[in-house]
Automatic annotation (TrEMBL):
It comes from Sparus aurata. PANTHER family: RAS GTPASE-ACTIVATING PROTEIN 2 (PTHR10194:SF21), RAS GTPASE-ACTIVATING PROTEINS (PTHR10194). PROSITE patterns: C2 (PS50004), PH_DOMAIN (PS50003), RAS_GTPASE_ACTIV_1 (PS00509), RAS_GTPASE_ACTIV_2 (PS50018), ZF_BTK (PS51113). Transmembrane segments: none annotated. Keywords: GTPase activation, Metal-binding, Repeat, Zinc, Zinc-finger. Residues 332-526 form the Ras-GAP domain. Residues 608-661 form the PH domain. GO terms for molecular function: GTPase activator activity; zinc ion binding. It comes from the Eukaryota. The keyword Nuclease does not apply. It holds the Pfam family RasGAP. The gene is RASA2. One of its GO terms (biological process) is intracellular signal transduction. This is RAS p21 protein activator 2.
Amino acid sequence: MAEEDDARIRILQSLRGKICEAKNLGPVSGPNRQRDLCTFCTISLDQEEVFRTKVFDKSVSPFYGEDFYFEIPRPFQCLSFYVYAKSVFQRELPVGKVSIRKDDLCKYSGKEHWFSLHPVDPNSEVQGKVHLEMRLNELITETGQIGQHLVVRIIECQGLPLISGQNCDPYATVSLVGPARSDQRKTKVKKKTSNPQFEETFFFEVTRSSSYAKKSHFQVEEEDIEKLELKVDLWNNENLAQDVFLGETRVPVKVLRDDHIHKAWYLLQPKGNGSKSKSDDLGSLRLRLTYIEDTVLPSACYTPLCNLLLKSPDVKPISASAAHILGDICRERYEAVLPTVRLLLHHNRFVPFVSAVAALELENTQEANTIFRGNSLATRCIDDMMKIVGKNYLAVTLKPVIDEICESNKTCEIDPNKLKEGDNVEVNKENLQGYVQKVFSSITQSSSSCPPLMCDVFRSLRHLACKRFPGDPHVQYSAVSSFVFLRFFAVAVLSPHTFQLRSHHPDPEISRTLTLISKTIQTLGSWGSLSKKLSSFKETYMYDFFKSFQEDKCIEKVKKFLDEISSNVSKESSGLEDAVVLKEGKKNFYWLYLNNFCFSGKEALCIINVKNIKAVEKLDESAFNRKNMFQVVHSEKPLYVQAGNCVEASEWLEVLGQVSRCNEGRLSTFHPSNYTSGAWQCCKSPSNNEPGCKPCTTTVLANLQLDIDCDRETERIFSLLSSNDTKLQNMEDACASMAVYQGPQREQEDYSKFTIQEPKETFQTLKQLRNIMEELQRQHNIRNDTTAQYGSLDNPIVGKTS
């Protein structure tokens, strides 16, 4: 079994981006109706909503500013962004939508684009696929005539949409359509399922000859075949209301000209390609999208590249290492460093690597007051490390005070040019000062919660800075504060939604308050002379405001805090981490803390100690006729939970599996359905205590905070190297030229972009990378040759539309 899993190829999808703003939104109904309504946006995979912004104030050109990121746990056809308006009766009225087919996402990846909004037409809101079979049969009638029938078998459907949040009641209509005919049949209705099993067969008379003797091997006439087509429509049975269209596909009968039997999966399509109405008056939406699809090969394929990268901290000089070369050739792409950081973190190789890279940067730093201020490989690596390792540290330290600031919503504007009528600047200053004091105290008293790995990095930076500038007494502090204050706490205060401290982008007024707090925290945390701190403000009002903090001895508090997080003294946990919410469910019905999984409903409250969880697995849709359900098996009976959508269900399975993977008494098997009517519905065993009938999912070993898939990260590194092949070649040429030419180094534009200290060492690493990349590409090519057959479940046919 393990060998089979190891040989498995995984297709992993993720989507990151931002819903930026809308422009000139059109009326929902009637002239200028939109001006009276608040709006919000949603994201849907096909027709399943997976993300929703907050509701924004009345505006025809609202600024949303909502970042999003999620793993996509299932195949999908279309990514859609909807703009809705809230009516005075709180009804959600569709304004328009942007739909992008999966195959087109690469066109827009990594950049911002304006998209025109299109009407939301029910006939275009489709998803799913249908499995059908067609064949031609000869039949002899009682009168001796020969006829030919088209036999159509509707086998099943998969992935039909939810209707009003519930599984639909689907049925299919099957029609044979031609110039002078339209014969229709209908399947039975299947109750409460998105994956109906129909298994119904229908017969359609195609043509008929005068006698059996006239043609012993009857063939459908050529002109009939060209004009006939099979049309399959899926509907949701609404009983008392009008049935809802779910999608259609059209198959020309001429596909049987070459094959006696045609059996295939087809994607459902909109009716008539959806609405054709004009959309110029609906406005537009600005989006930034990055869709990534990783084809992850078996682990053994990545071992050579992974090992070469993990050797990087030991390479002398560090600039000749594979990890440094990757950072060098991808310096324009900020996200390129992240997979290397995650890989090094997972294998405990990050601290020696970043220490060597920081030492190299310090060699080229001439003044102590500019230490670690640029966007270098060292600063990018440490930035990414702090975001990964320090996520819960931020939650413990800042979330309570950030929540208070966002929810109390006190006015804190102190810029005379931005004061509103009736504002009292002295009251605003007092409000702002109170907030700053709370944030500042939360930070400077948080040293016991600072993750050990961050402390190790800060200690190394402090040592390197003192060694580089031994005559400067402040550099040991500025080396640390430039990261922990300027690049960590101040940034998190400024954009709490980016660091998962808030679920949505703050309102403009609260954003302004957070900006003022962030500015002050940056200055308080910058270790240096007091005169430099005050002169760092360009605005007079900030200069005057900051002077009120001199008497509080903030500098001494900062120094003490920086000493504590960069010293050799080991710290005990403050115990606050137990209260950190690691994940929160839809509508706050369930939460995961470090020690407990809590579920609340209208009548009951359930708290499960994480240590008592024995398995976390998917639950079959058939158990309760509901999608996106999972089960938490613990010492008592299983807890069955329905997530809001497929993304949320996948995230819960992942995080609960990680926190419980080392528990004693973990189960090796589970029941994928429920126990009802005296038997398990999956295996029909009558015993409630019967061991599971299906093997439990193997949870990959990962630190809870460092949930890292090493194979996926290595595949991303391979993709980055492949896309920068020209730069790698230029670097090879530069090394060869420098190694051969021993005179004064020539200035060449291409060569000056690279850090090459030892050309021979660097050239050797580049050659190793080249060989490994060629072998990995060969492995990909082998796998690409085994693409799923067109018309299979994994590669369905995109049929015609009306």
